[in-house]
């Protein structure tokens, strides 16, 4: 249907087996989806401009200060030639992986697609010897070297290393964060499994059809940035930026304008399978929440208790793809950087009251218009006006990301158990390096993995360990609290009463219950 310019949600297919009924749910895509190579310039999107702002202190000749990376394990080994063929097909098929930045004479930055004849990916193959420990150390060093070879204005956007160890082959993939996001990894790994399997069997590699190009999305955002719909959000974002909140306490004073790069370190926590299952399902019944809202609530509670502050400001990173669905764009299989980054200020009064805290945080999050997409568009793309002057806006020191889509499974490879060890050294957090504290949560093998990165120039490890321990305690207490609730408490956004605050809603509810 996509090839013919129509979009149909799979849930409607399952609910309505009749073609006659289904036809009423089919949406016309903005234009037929091009299956050939996409050429030409692509407008920089808000998230790309946001990332470039963070990269501006780093000379183009130096390594990118952050990147996306993954380490795969094939216990039975990779066949080199089919692997090369699959990787080559992937970077040709996904047009965003061919994007290259151009520095103009006026020092402005643009981007355009490279040709298929240019070098789009590198793959190095190394056999590592010595003991298993020595081989792992060599691999970690090589992964850091490969990732450090990514450059802002030159070279391919994807670099790979194949390491042959006695315990199996490891494939390291590093991608420029300007051209891929966390959801893109799932697409890339699915296609790697498909392409590698086809090449291994001697077949021609045929990947699933393309969805709307990143170029189409970028052009849509340019139009959206100057729409009346978006300008209605300006007062909301101005209010958020002008909110009062204090900076976080530090172990050491940090001079932020010294030009030096933050030195980040990472701690890791993983819930059990049962705890994860509870958090994903039963926990959310008590207050009609989603896992992201529960995690934000616990993070706010923990930071408030530690800092003594009742207003906690943070940047939330959202996948950013939801808005496309409402504009008849299909980007379900589009590789690109779609993340929305926007500020949220949590009101953590009565932090010991878990029920009240969850409801307040839930309402705060759900009041954010369009999943935060408009914030970046207003700041970076809108011609007439932007949110408050960025020079007056103090950027939050905490970042938060939650990803609920685990990496796909494959018969050929899996995520390496060494990923956690290699990741921190290769700076696997793309935006987190700009924060004092950054929490990244995602599902891995049926368990929720939570990583907190911190600025080692600002904090001693023991401080963050204590903070993380408090977070774990509060999270488990919150899970138990929600499981103990027999009924369900709704909040204003659940019943369409968005104009009421939580206190007004509670008073009204109690009034009607007393009648």
Which features characterize this protein?
six-stranded mixed beta sheet; 18% strand; alpha+beta; 17 helices; Condensation_dom; 4 domains; Chloramphenicol Acetyltransferase; CAT-like_dom_sf; ligase; 515 residues; Condensation domain-containing protein
Question: Gist?
Answer:
This protein is α+β, with helices and mostly antiparallel strands and 515 residues long. It has 17 helices and 15 strands. The protein has four domains: 1-32, no CATH class; 46-211, 2-Layer Sandwich (Chloramphenicol Acetyltransferase), CATH 3.30.559; 215-249 and 263-406 and 416-485, Nonribosomal peptide synthetase, condensation domain (Chloramphenicol Acetyltransferase), CATH 3.30.559.30; 486-515.
Overall geometry: globular
Rg over alpha carbons: 24 Å
By DSSP, the count of extended strands is: 15
Low-confidence stretches: 424-430
**What is the CATH domain class of the largest domain?**
Alpha Beta
Write out the strand line-up for the largest beta sheet, numbering strands in chain order.
9-15-14-12-10-11
Helix content: 25-40%
Number of domains: 4
- Report the span from N to C terminus: 54 Å
- Per CATH, the superfamily of the largest domain is Nonribosomal peptide synthetase, condensation domain
Strand proportion: 15-25%
Average of per-residue pLDDT values: 87
> Helix count?
17
Q: In the CATH classification, which architecture of the largest domain applies?
A: 2-Layer Sandwich
């Amino acid at each position: 249907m996509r090839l013919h310019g129509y979009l149909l949600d799979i849930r409607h297919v399952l609910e309505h087996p009749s073609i006659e009924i289904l036809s009423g749910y089919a949406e016309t895509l903005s234009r037929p989806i091009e299956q050939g190579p996409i050429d030409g310039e692509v407008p920089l999107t808000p998230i790309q401009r946001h990332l470039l702002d963070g990269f501006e202190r780093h000379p183009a000749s130096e390594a990118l200060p952050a990147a996306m990376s993954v380490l795969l394990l094939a216990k039975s080994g990779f066949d080199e030639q089919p692997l090369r063929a699959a990787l080559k097909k992937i970077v040709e098929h996904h047009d965003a992986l061919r994007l290259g930045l151009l520095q103009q004479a006026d020092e402005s930055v643009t981007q355009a697609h490279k040709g298929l004849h240019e070098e789009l990916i590198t793959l190095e193959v190394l056999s590592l010897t010595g003991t298993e420990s020595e081989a792992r150390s060599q691999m970690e060093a090589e992964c850091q070297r490969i990732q450090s070879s990514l450059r802002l204005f030159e070279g391919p956007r994807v670099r790979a290393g194949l390491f042959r160890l006695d315990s199996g082959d490891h494939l390291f993939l590093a991608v420029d964060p300007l051209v891929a996001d966390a959801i893109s990894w799932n697409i890339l790994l699915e296609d790697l499994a498909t392409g590698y399997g086809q090449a291994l069997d001697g077949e021609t590699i045929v990947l699933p059809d393309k969805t709307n190009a990143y170029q189409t999305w970028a052009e849509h955002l340019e139009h959206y940035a100057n729409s009346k719909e978006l300008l209605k959000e300006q007062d909301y974002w101005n209010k958020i930026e002008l909110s009062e909140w204090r900076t976080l306490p530090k172990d050491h004073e940090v001079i932020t304008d010294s030009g030096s790069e933050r030195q980040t370190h990472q701690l890791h926590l993983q819930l059990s399978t049962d705890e994860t299952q509870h958090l994903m399902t039963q926990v959310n019944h008590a207050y009609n929440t989603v896992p992201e809202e529960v995690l934000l609530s616990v993070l706010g509670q923990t930071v408030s208790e530690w800092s003594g502050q009742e207003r906690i400001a943070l940047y939330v990173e959202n996948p950013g793809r939801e808005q496309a669905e409402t504009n008849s764009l299909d980007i379900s299989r589009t590789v690109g950087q779609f993340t929305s980054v926007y500020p949220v200020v949590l009101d953590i009064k009565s932090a010991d009251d878990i029920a009240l805290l969850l409801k307040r945080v839930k309402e705060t999050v759900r009041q954010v218009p369009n999943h935060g997409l408009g914030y970046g568009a207003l700041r970076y793309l809108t011609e007439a006006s932007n949110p408050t002057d960025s020079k007056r806006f103090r950027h939050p020191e905490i970042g938060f990301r939650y990803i609920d889509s685990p990496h796909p499974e494959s018969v050929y490879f899996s995520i390496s158990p060494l990923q956690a060890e290699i990741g921190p050294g290769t700076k696997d957090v793309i935006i987190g390096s700009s924060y004092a504290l950054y929490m990244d949560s995602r599902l891995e093998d049926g368990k929720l993995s939570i990583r907190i990165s911190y600025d080692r120039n600002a904090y001693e490890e023991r401080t963050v360990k204590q903070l993380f321990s408090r977070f774990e305690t509060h999270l488990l207490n919150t899970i138990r609290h929600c499981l103990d609730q027999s009924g369900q408490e709704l909040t204003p956004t659940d019943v369409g009463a968005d104009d009421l605050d939580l206190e007004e809603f509670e008073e009204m509810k109690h009034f009607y219950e007393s009648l």
